[in-house]
Specification:
Number of strands: 13
Structural class: alpha+beta
Strand order of the largest sheet: 8-9-11-10-12-13
Order of helices and strands: HEEEHHHEHEEEHHEEHEEHEE
Largest sheet: 6 strands, antiparallel
Oligomer: single chain
Number of helices: 9
Length: 282
């Protein structure tokens, strides 16, 4: 069995043996790709500089390595990677290739992520600090039966769109409510789960003002928020549990259940029905 370093060396050394001749002058490259809550090793083929730009897919090698560990068949992995690269080369929207990000104004949505775990990412993207979380902005450029494809808005993209961060926040929140409506799932003992219809990045519904007011009326007033992941949060009536107890539950979940890439916060919040605001309990 190859360790991860040896696996990466084999991939870069042999991948072109499995690709069509059009890729013979491309250079296999591995570079760190900044993601939510960390970085991943991204593999791509760099074309010769003189060639006209053609978008090429990026494969995350740490994920591919986990696939390799299932049967330790490196040739199968190389064939699968080659199929993905061949099938997806050049598949992006024309506007994205031109850098005309203003065309995506109606597709910008807001996502809540951990502020503490994404300090390096936040240096490069427009964002808004919300307690120990951060609101970032994502463009949905393809959404079909195969899934959702998106990218995070950078500072340069925001400038190209001709908007300020405040305008981007209002625009993204409006689009999010339209594209990803809130969904409340009934639980036990008056506890409910708040997410969106897609179940992806549903904790961002915390920013939907009207839906949060509706939820407070449903809960009978103020309620605690247990941010179980970036995809959803638990709403708990203040009379049903203490923030100390909920904090212990959250710590256990973050440590054993929630994937590291999906951790949102280690704090419990309280929503005020009167003010319509969030407060960090600890």
């Amino acid at each position: 069995m190859l360790n991860y370093e040896a696996f990466c060396a084999v991939i870069t050394g042999r991948i072109k043996d499995h690709l069509p001749g059009e890729f013979r002058d491309h250079e296999p490259t591995i570079r760190a790709v900044r993601k939510i809550n960390g970085e991943k090793d991204g593999f791509c083929l760099e074309p010769p500089e003189q060639e006209e730009f053609v978008p090429l897919p990026v494969l995350y090698l740490d994920d591919v390595y986990q696939d390799y560990l299932t049967d330790e068949d490196i040739d199968r992995v190389l064939e699968c990677m080659a199929e993905v690269i061949t099938a997806n080369t050049g598949r992006q929207l024309p506007d994205e290739l031109k850098g005309d990000y203003s065309a995506f104004r109606d597709c910008v949505v807001v996502n809540l992520i951990s502020g503490q775990l994404n300090e390096r990412l936040l240096d490069e993207v427009p964002h808004r600090k919300i307690l120990d979380m951060a609101a970032v902005y994502r463009v949905i450029f393809r959404w079909d039966e195969a899934g959702v494809n998106s990218f995070i808005v950078s500072n340069e993209m925001m400038e190209d769109m001709g908007v300020t961060e405040e305008e981007l926040f209002d625009l993204a929140r409006t689009n999010s409510r339209r594209m990803f409506p809130a969904r409340v799932i009934e639980g036990k003992d008056s506890v409910v789960v708040m997410t969106n219809e897609s179940g992806m990045n549903g904790a961002s519904t915390m920013l939907y003002e009207r839906e949060m007011r509706d939820l407070s009326r449903r809960m009978g007033g103020d309620f605690y928020i247990l941010p179980s992941s970036v995809h959803e949060f638990f709403a708990v009536p203040v009379h049903a549990a203490s923030p100390e107890y909920l904090k212990k539950l959250l710590e256990q979940g973050n440590g054993t259940v929630t994937d590291y890439q999906e951790i949102l916060s280690s704090s419990i919040y309280r929503y005020s029905e009167e003010r319509g605001t969030l407060k960090q309990c600890d």
